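Support case: user asked for a sample of complex input and structure output to validate their parser. Sending the pair below.
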Amino acid sequence: MSKVLTFGEIMLRLSTSPGTHFSNIVSFQAHYGGAEANVAVNLANFGYDVAFASKVPDNALGLSVKRHLQKYGVNTKPLLLGGNRLGTYYLDSGVGERSSAVIYDRANSSFASVQEMEWDFEQLFENVDILHLSGITPALSEKLAEISLRLVKEAKKRDIKVSFDINFRSKLWNHDQASRTLAKILPYVDYCSAGKMDAIYLLGIPENQTEQDDTDYYYQKMHEKYNNIEVFYSTKREVHSATSNSLQGTLWKDGKTYVSKVHKLEPIIDRVGGGDAFSAGILHGLVTGADLNYTVSFASAYSGLKHTIYGDCNPFAIRDVENLMENGSAKINR
Amino acid sequence: MSKVLTFGEIMLRLSTSPGTHFSNIVSFQAHYGGAEANVAVNLANFGYDVAFASKVPDNALGLSVKRHLQKYGVNTKPLLLGGNRLGTYYLDSGVGERSSAVIYDRANSSFASVQEMEWDFEQLFENVDILHLSGITPALSEKLAEISLRLVKEAKKRDIKVSFDINFRSKLWNHDQASRTLAKILPYVDYCSAGKMDAIYLLGIPENQTEQDDTDYYYQKMHEKYNNIEVFYSTKREVHSATSNSLQGTLWKDGKTYVSKVHKLEPIIDRVGGGDAFSAGILHGLVTGADLNYTVSFASAYSGLKHTIYGDCNPFAIRDVENLMENGSAKINR
Amino acid sequence: MSKVLTFGEIMLRLSTSPGTHFSNIVSFQAHYGGAEANVAVNLANFGYDVAFASKVPDNALGLSVKRHLQKYGVNTKPLLLGGNRLGTYYLDSGVGERSSAVIYDRANSSFASVQEMEWDFEQLFENVDILHLSGITPALSEKLAEISLRLVKEAKKRDIKVSFDINFRSKLWNHDQASRTLAKILPYVDYCSAGKMDAIYLLGIPENQTEQDDTDYYYQKMHEKYNNIEVFYSTKREVHSATSNSLQGTLWKDGKTYVSKVHKLEPIIDRVGGGDAFSAGILHGLVTGADLNYTVSFASAYSGLKHTIYGDCNPFAIRDVENLMENGSAKINR
Amino acid sequence: MSKVLTFGEIMLRLSTSPGTHFSNIVSFQAHYGGAEANVAVNLANFGYDVAFASKVPDNALGLSVKRHLQKYGVNTKPLLLGGNRLGTYYLDSGVGERSSAVIYDRANSSFASVQEMEWDFEQLFENVDILHLSGITPALSEKLAEISLRLVKEAKKRDIKVSFDINFRSKLWNHDQASRTLAKILPYVDYCSAGKMDAIYLLGIPENQTEQDDTDYYYQKMHEKYNNIEVFYSTKREVHSATSNSLQGTLWKDGKTYVSKVHKLEPIIDRVGGGDAFSAGILHGLVTGADLNYTVSFASAYSGLKHTIYGDCNPFAIRDVENLMENGSAKINR
Amino acid sequence: MSKVLTFGEIMLRLSTSPGTHFSNIVSFQAHYGGAEANVAVNLANFGYDVAFASKVPDNALGLSVKRHLQKYGVNTKPLLLGGNRLGTYYLDSGVGERSSAVIYDRANSSFASVQEMEWDFEQLFENVDILHLSGITPALSEKLAEISLRLVKEAKKRDIKVSFDINFRSKLWNHDQASRTLAKILPYVDYCSAGKMDAIYLLGIPENQTEQDDTDYYYQKMHEKYNNIEVFYSTKREVHSATSNSLQGTLWKDGKTYVSKVHKLEPIIDRVGGGDAFSAGILHGLVTGADLNYTVSFASAYSGLKHTIYGDCNPFAIRDVENLMENGSAKINR
Amino acid sequence: MSKVLTFGEIMLRLSTSPGTHFSNIVSFQAHYGGAEANVAVNLANFGYDVAFASKVPDNALGLSVKRHLQKYGVNTKPLLLGGNRLGTYYLDSGVGERSSAVIYDRANSSFASVQEMEWDFEQLFENVDILHLSGITPALSEKLAEISLRLVKEAKKRDIKVSFDINFRSKLWNHDQASRTLAKILPYVDYCSAGKMDAIYLLGIPENQTEQDDTDYYYQKMHEKYNNIEVFYSTKREVHSATSNSLQGTLWKDGKTYVSKVHKLEPIIDRVGGGDAFSAGILHGLVTGADLNYTVSFASAYSGLKHTIYGDCNPFAIRDVENLMENGSAKINR
């Protein structure tokens, strides 16, 4: 199977139990996650040979991150040990009308403090078919924006496909900063996850005044701007409550938009990582050359499964997704 | 900010975990609550200077109650230590079609056994702006009915606003007993939480045969009977199942009824204390002289938040309510 | 009250917590259950004198099974201690779109390995009014199919009513094997739980091409084939998701079908044992000679209650069911 | 095997987890226990036909008590349902230097409020060989002291052996009250658990000024006073800390004292019920006519096992005790 | 009672459960603590009017800290809300031969980043009798060293007693840095917790070559150097294993050393905060003018109690300590 | 670093929480382990390239095993997926006088049912330096005894060191069966873990009648019998109670015995896997050519660490062991 490299930050997530206020908890649930790390784990669960490049402190927390990744078969050779601290974030789990809330405590982490290119390009890219990163990485520091740019350039030099999820985080940077950096990176990208808001606020696409369907319109316009990008994809999420959403996947290629069925996600156990699961599902479809309707359906079903599990990463394998696609939730198999 | 005094019983609540039968539990979840104590905690969370007057045993349980109240900033100087036992109740948490059930074990508690006025009026009422109590307190004993009456009279003497939540509990007294006592207390009340059933069965209002809206009718009639009461309020709850309700707040003043939007509460984590949260929200609106539409909306949203948290009291602050009122549950802020 | 005997396998069930993947669990929830054991517990909770005949290993697990049954008042004299192991199964608890999954590890259990009739008929049947077993028992081994047949014959000899739940399990046997065995057992049965699929695939009833209602048609046809069977019953379940179902009970007697209201089961805590609860409810109605509309309603409500509790057996008593039938989930009683 | 009847109160015990202060707990561990109920469970675990007579409220708590007793095979026919409440006590679990502490909340329980003899003597005593009760029962009320006396008298009339554990509780009565009541009961007792403090403060035995061993002296003197009592027994406990004790059993019969080895109990999981386990062990030895050295060793080992388990009752069977007596704790059997 | 002010950092502590490796945990136990915050809580538990001055972020974590302190009655008016993050540390709980380990993640916290004196002296010191701080505060930053010095000077100006616990932390500063700062602060101190290592490495006392007892020698020499310091105190801890220690308190005043009995601490639930408990106990003795033998015994017993409870602070009250001093761990009081 | 291959069974272990009886548990703690799998994990934690060859079912349990091994970096390429079931065992955790007990439920597992050599020798042994297996593997079936013998022969052919831990399990085979099989395997072994009981009962060494030290005598005699075995090693365990042991490691090479200090293991969290940890520590010393005193001390310390952690495998790394060897448990590093 294909070999994949992802590059980004992985954090410790400390979350409350549903129905318990921060000031009343006696313990925090602990998970490890980050956009690129999640994609790495998810693709490893599909059987790919995936390496995750990052940096975590050389202590018990760093070791825990390493074991978390290894558990799912992710290659941790490019996971450097060193620096000051592990990035952390707190998740206050929402219920019904009360939405989830995140408190970031990720500044000055070992990864965000990287001051030079500490990874060797030759080793990193050996036999790699796809490089995946997200907009979170260049948002972390000037230096990481620079390294991200070098990575996508080096990947292109080696004919490696570049997958990029825009993943805008307003707590990390603003629209202007993001736009400037994205304008440098996107010319090297092959597959891009971007939605309507990204198109308008980060890529400068004018709002849709036509009668064309929004999805078609924005994908088309983004492609016109960056015609190096072969495939666009994203999820449309209708939020009924913190624990009930509808989710539909869309994918654009060669001027045509493919959409999945609408998944009713209720109750939602944990939506963090739902987008990363969708990205992993799309990449799986693309590298296997699967039918694009199947691809978008597979990715959506896989994203749906993520919402039924605590934690940022999606422990399910291809057969679990196919089982859901075929049988739905109709019965206990016994 | 205003200074508030509440007076009533606080109990230990022992509840089962959802999905577990009483006879199969290995532990009970422990919370502390009572109508007036909950209002005290809720108003303290809004920043008010709130004191709670009651009596609990001078042992580890009494100390736990005291610390529970202090945690949220409630002034516990008028919380007396002494007597025999802490009132207790068991909550069997309902799910779906199966409703929650309560087993009271509150008889002979330190508070219910109070035999004389053990609090000093001067100290109790020093600088107080509002006195809040509920119909549960006079229901506990003849003596407490007498003390409740003295308290509202003393409050009125001092130009303190009196807030009273009828809160009828059929396991504590019957309609006749309640009616007789309420008839003595209500003439001293300024703000009163009462609904249609209270109007008919406790205040002797004839059933609505007119074409007038029920809410308007009963509020109007109650006001006609007790025109000292400036404000009436209550929630209307439609129960779809133990874990799914719709809730709407209403408030009446100067001949006009104000209603909030209908909140869809699903899943309900814990509905106990939902009414007390609504009362606290209304009092907050009234003492700040807020717009009455805002007031009823704020109180309803605050009551809605309560349903997302285990325990009788509502740990959220004003900014959490306003955040819900502005943004709904639409997204994770990150 | 009547005396009941049930015969079958009881297993240890190891289940994951909702929202947690098998590979990430740190503990399994432990419950004990099996179709006939569940019916025994349920009927004991109604106050019947119920004995459960089976075999479990003579070790701490066997003792735990015995205590589980005794807890609810089931007579464990015919629960033999011996053999190699306790049958086990793993339950991966589904959520929303993701359905539950079962991994059986029941082969070679003490019960499935029974090689001869180890119970004494005279003792087993002393004063018994009803014998209940399900299609799982004869599916476990040739020997158990033979013993099942002897049991129903011996029961009939003694004028004991025979209740039989077809309970087809595709992981234990196939349609052909089941059909052959059922053809021998059903002539001795008085009350039978069977649905459309059972009718078509196991009893050889042709698919309904008529305009008659499916329920009526299949019950009628099954009765035509086995006119010794007085009563047929089963539940119709519409599966919206793993945690949301609609359930309706049906019962046929003397050419007439009786149906319960449709119960909305949401959220479902645990649906395992829902069918056994329905069977117990039906048997209760039949032995008390209750009205058949009441009977099917009682059984459906009792089955609904089961879905609100973890574990295979239904801890509720008659008054809990009647409480649900009268009051619904409308309010907390306090 | 012999048939046994015990009579007394059973309570809900709510305990903290070790290392957690009352004011910081989020849940209480729940167990059910009481001196006579524990002896009943323990003897049932040895295979005896044991009935427990008491009274608990007719609600979910009473049902839970009933199921707790049934689980171990105790006959609950004489467990009446009715009255106001279930007696409760809180246990603050000690660690090391900090001792455990108990808060009783047992006043006005259904059992303590019994006002007349609600059990039928003929039914109670049918085929009974031994009646066991403890000094806690007559301490609960004048009425229960009277009923206790009638029970031992009726037992003697029927040639039933009477076993009585003095079990003095200073929170229930004082030395004078206890002495007066014991003086009436002890003339009907055959087997009595009493120690040095009981002898001096409750039975009026002068302190040992002789050179005789204390154990011999007090047993001898008590026997001189009540020569109807055939057997005396008790444990000597040296308390090194809340979690480390040494325990030795002693038994006196026919002028001779038998002692067990000293058991080192460390760490102690839960010492509540350790005395009841010893009593059950002694009764087992006496009714089987076992060697008295064996009897006191068996009872001590069984009491030791109790200290390794949470809760008031001792779930182990005869073979577990014999296993400990033969092999000690030396190795894992695998 | 006296009024106390403490000043320092409070952190979130995330700890593993005993017996679980960092890389295998699914949740972290959460507690809040810090040397000066712990002393504040402990003194509040004795009934003192204690205020804690510090700074925490204005988010759910800061609110949780505030509620933690309020729970025990600590006045949080001087607890500022603002800045970037809450200091955090991870505690890997040791067992037996394996010692506990701490990973600090406290850099850049809201408190450590304080850049100017944000508290008003007049308000801070109003009616204060004692100011307590530890060497951790000046170790956090140059600025906090400066503020610490100003605080002790301002306190002396107002005739407020200054209590200072040297509390050297090698992960925060080295011997040289600490010595220089201490040399400025100690001239303003009245009560000082310092041991042999502090004397040698931080205060420049030559090692004891005399025949004098070490404790006497170092206290004497430190007093010679800083004769403004009236009272020295510290604990001597013999570590048998991570879960078994012996602890003895010592106190020096007017040329005389007072020692407590040796407490055997086994098993140790959590030793963090044991020194802060000792400090609080000593301060209680000093401000009440208690006998110095009593004072050192009280402080040691109180420190011993801390080791029996999870978390940094000591929830026990004066009567709990006196109970331990009088009765030891000998029995359950019931 | 060296490359290691281990071969054996890995099982799911279901254990009770300390202090809870089997019949009262609501959940089982889940761990995965087996002698050879544990050695594999332990050596991977030291940084070796370790592969584990075995067979587990192709379901969620097999996947969980695979992820368990991967987590620690074990290469799972030779872990085959297939067959019927995962071997299981129940562990009743002992406390104090009550020893732990194991119930095996491992018969008919995927591994034990292997009927032919399903692994390819060339792939298995590629670059391997050490093969490790234990006497449990040949005890599982005739076929596995045969495969074990082939493996050691093939290893010797390739100049691979063979490490063998006798690990006699009386529940799997008897002395005669074991002796016969060991007699075939031991001639191919280089490093062997065997103790006095093994020497006498399995290797036919006459009991020591000489004045020689037992350890020296038996190692010497075993070496005389199998002079191909270069190194013998084992632990001597003195069992004070289930939760308190003393443990000393011994190692023999070239006629000389090396012993570690005696480790006091108290409290023991979990002793399962303690021997496997010792083996891993010895192998680490041998392959690095470390000093033999260091080697036996390292292995003993590493085994000691295992006893402080739940589960069969030892999560600690070389630096943790060295930290314990240097510092003991004396203090918290902060």
